[in-house]
Amino acid sequence: MEKFLLKYFTLIRVIIAIGIGIVISVFLIYLTSQEPGFSLRSFLLGPFLTRSRLAHLFETASPIIFCGLAIAVAFQAKQFNIGAEGSLYLGAAVGTAFAVSTNMPAFIHIPLVLLIAGLTGALWSFIPGILKAKWKASELVSSLMLNYVAYFLGLYLINYHFRDKEAGFLVSFKLPETAWLARFIPDTRIHYGIILALVLAVLVYYFLYHTTAGYEIRSTGFNERFARFGGISVFKVIILCQVILGFLAAFGGMTEVMGIHRRFLWQSSPGYGWDGIIVAIIGRSHPLLIVPASFFLAYMRVGGRVLNLMSDVPAEMVMVIQSIIILLITAEAFLSQWKYRITVRQAERGGAA
Amino acid sequence: MNPLLQSILSAEFGFAIFRVMTPLLFASIGVSISRLAGTINISMEGTMLVSAFVGVLVSAFTNSLILALLAGVAAGVAMGAILSYFHLRLKANIILAAIALNMFASGITVFLLFLATGDKGSSSSLKSMLFPEVHIPLIKSIPVLGTIISGHNIMTYGAFLAIILFYIITFKTPLGLRIRAVGQNPHAAESVGINVNRIRMWALMLSGFFGAFGGLYLSMGYVSWFARDMTAGRGWIAIAAATLGGYMPLGTFLASLLFGAVNALAIYFASLQIPSELIALIPYLATVIALTIYSAQAQKKRHRKVEEAKQVGTIKETT
Question: Phi first, then psi: what are they for B122, rounded to 5°?
Answer without folding.
Answer: -150, 170
